[in-house]
Automatic annotation (TrEMBL):
<feature type="binding site">
    <location>
        <position position="336"/>
    </location>
    <ligand>
        <name>homogentisate</name>
    </ligand>
</feature>
<keyword id="KW-0479">Metal-binding</keyword>
<feature type="binding site">
    <location>
        <position position="300"/>
    </location>
    <ligand>
        <name>Fe cation</name>
    </ligand>
</feature>
<dbReference type="GO" id="GO:0006559">
    <property type="term" value="P:L-phenylalanine catabolic process"/>
</dbReference>
<comment type="similarity">
    <text>Belongs to the homogentisate dioxygenase family.</text>
</comment>
<dbReference type="InterPro" id="IPR014710">
    <property type="entry name" value="RmlC-like_jellyroll"/>
</dbReference>
<dbReference type="InterPro" id="IPR005708">
    <property type="entry name" value="Homogentis_dOase"/>
</dbReference>
<feature type="active site" description="Proton acceptor">
    <location>
        <position position="263"/>
    </location>
</feature>
<dbReference type="Pfam" id="PF20510">
    <property type="entry name" value="HgmA_N"/>
</dbReference>
<dbReference type="GO" id="GO:0006570">
    <property type="term" value="P:tyrosine metabolic process"/>
</dbReference>
<keyword id="KW-0560">Oxidoreductase</keyword>
<feature type="domain" description="Homogentisate 1,2-dioxygenase N-terminal">
    <location>
        <begin position="115"/>
        <end position="250"/>
    </location>
</feature>
<protein>
    <submittedName>
        <fullName>Homogentisate 1,2-dioxygenase</fullName>
    </submittedName>
</protein>
<keyword id="KW-0223">Dioxygenase</keyword>
<dbReference type="GO" id="GO:0005737">
    <property type="term" value="C:cytoplasm"/>
</dbReference>
<dbReference type="GO" id="GO:0046872">
    <property type="term" value="F:metal ion binding"/>
</dbReference>
<feature type="binding site">
    <location>
        <position position="336"/>
    </location>
    <ligand>
        <name>Fe cation</name>
    </ligand>
</feature>
């Protein structure tokens, strides 16, 4: 959960007259996600944010499912996803269920001639390569390698990259993405045993206030369609805002690993939670220090979830033949564990430089046509010793 923030100029009392220098009113908007009960922010627009001029023809962007019932362990070669100039075109859905879309993108950074809003889902971008900034009505969120960028549903944004070589892992979540509840106290503050804290947040800054009329296209994603809607005024016309609901970022490099004398289970790596999946960060850390410790994980029957690992950097201790950008999928129902030799190889090792993002989903994942196109096709045999 984010923290209370305030940027720009706001009136001393909410829901009261807030006037421009010419005497006209600023236009207040409540931006919340769970009715009027969840986290929200109050934004003050220069113009009414409701001035639709025209509606374009919606087009279908639903993922095309190739395998709906998957019981196969998979390895996807993520860097085989082709770069594309346009940000939305570059987003390639790979693993999906009714709760989320997990995909990869390699946008080469063409300037966005439109604005984008996901009305269905919170978005979580993980920046594997590249840097830039997210531009929103709340201000700008700069990002670089290793950042998670969390964009609450309904946030209008443009994304700008500093160069052409960008690689992103992205999630679209139909339930809100929060920090893990067990790391929050009664007041919502991250506690002393949390692996990161509010000081690590990258918060919106450099508020943009564009007092402009014209034609501004917002591509709104809703029910697996993109609806192009043209507005009369610039979406970034906010003079000030405050509240709890806004985009922010957090660097995986600021995740402080929790270690122990013996092997610690995956929940110690948890970084975000939803009702439908968790996100964990596997970061460089010292290994277990019991004299007889086995640092590699034990085999485990992930019977209740599908497990997705995205490999970012370093040697991944429990896997053979894994490279940057690979995605492994271990479907629920089949136990899995270290590859042959990895269990033994880990004994006596003092530390690991592995860096990976894990997504465990509580419902099975389906594979898209694009996922099958980059599937190595033989990963499921990689545990066999014969
Ligand atoms: Fe696992």
């Amino acid at each position: 959960m984010p923290i209370y923030q305030q940027l720009g100029t706001i009136p001393p009392k909410r829901h009261t007259q807030f006037r421009k220098t010419d005497g006209g009113l600023y236009y207040e908007e409540l931006f919340g996600t769970i009715g009027f009960e969840g986290m929200s922010s109050l934004l003050y627009h220069t113009w009414r944010p409701t001035q639709v001029k025209s509606l374009g023809e919606p087009y279908d962007v639903a993922p095309r499912i190739a395998v709906a019932n998957n019981m196969t362990m998979r390895k996807l070669i993520g860097f085989d996803v082709k770069p594309a100039a346009d940000y939305l075109d570059s987003r390639t859905p790979l693993l999906v269920n009714r709760d989320l879309i997990l995909g990869l993108a390699a946008p080469t950074g063409a300037p966005m001639s439109y604005f984008y809003k996901n009305a269905d889902a919170d978005e979580l971008l993980f920046i594997h390569r590249g840097s830039g900034k997210l531009r929103t009505p709340f201000g700008q969120v700069p990002f670089t390698y290793g950042d998670y960028v969390l964009i609450p549903r309904g946030t209008i944004y443009q994304i700008e990259f500093d160069g052409p070589d960008n690689r992103l892992l992205y999630l679209e979540s139909h339930t809100p993405i929060y920090t893990p509840k067990r790391y929050r106290n009664h007041f919502g503050q991250l506690t002393e045993h949390s692996p990161y804290c509010e000081r690590d947040y990258i918060l919106p800054r450099d508020l943009e206030t564009h007092d402009e009329h014209g034609e501004f296209i917002i591509k709104i994603k809703k029910q697996s369609h993109i609806h192009p809607v043209t507005y009369e005024t610039h979406p970034f016309d906010v003079i000030g805002w405050d509240g709890y609901n806004y985009p922010w970022a957090f660097s995986i490099h600021n995740f402080e690993p929790i270690t122990g004398r013996i092997h610690q289970p995956p929940p110690v790596h948890q970084t975000f939670q939803t009702d439908a999946f968790v996100v964990c960060s596997f970061c460089p850390r010292l290994y277990d220090y019991h004299p007889l410790a086995i640092p590699a994980p034990y085999n485990h029957s992930n019977i209740d979830s599908d497990e997705v690992l995205y490999y970012v950097d370093g040697d991944f201790m429990s896997r053979n033949d894994i490279a940057q950008g690979h995605i492994t999928l271990h479907p629920g129902g089949i136990p899995h564990g270290p590859h042959p030799g990895a269990y033994e190889r880990s004994i006596g090792k003092k530390e690991t430089q592995e860096l990976a993002v894990m997504v465990d989903t509580f419902r099975p994942l389906m594979l898209t046509e694009q996922a099958i196109a980059i599937d190595d096709g033989r990963y499921f045999t990689s545990w066999a010793e014969g």
